[in-house]
Amino acid sequence: MKSLLFKCSFLLVFLLFSYTPDVQEFYGQATYVSKSTMDLGRWGARMSEAQKKQVQARLKNRLEKTYVLSFNKAASLFKEEDRLDATSGATDSWGSNFSRGKQYKNVKENALVQSQEFYGKQFLVKDKLQEINWKMGSESKQIGQYTCFKATASVPSKELAWYSFSWSDLRRNTPGQDAAAEPEIRMTEVEAWYTPQIPVGHGPGEYWGLPGLILEVNAGNTTMLCSEIVMNPQKQIKIEAPKKGKEITKDAYQATISEKMQEMRNNRGRRRG
Question: Ramachandran region of residue 120, left (φ > 0), alpha (ψ -120 to 50) or beta?
Answer without folding.
Answer: left
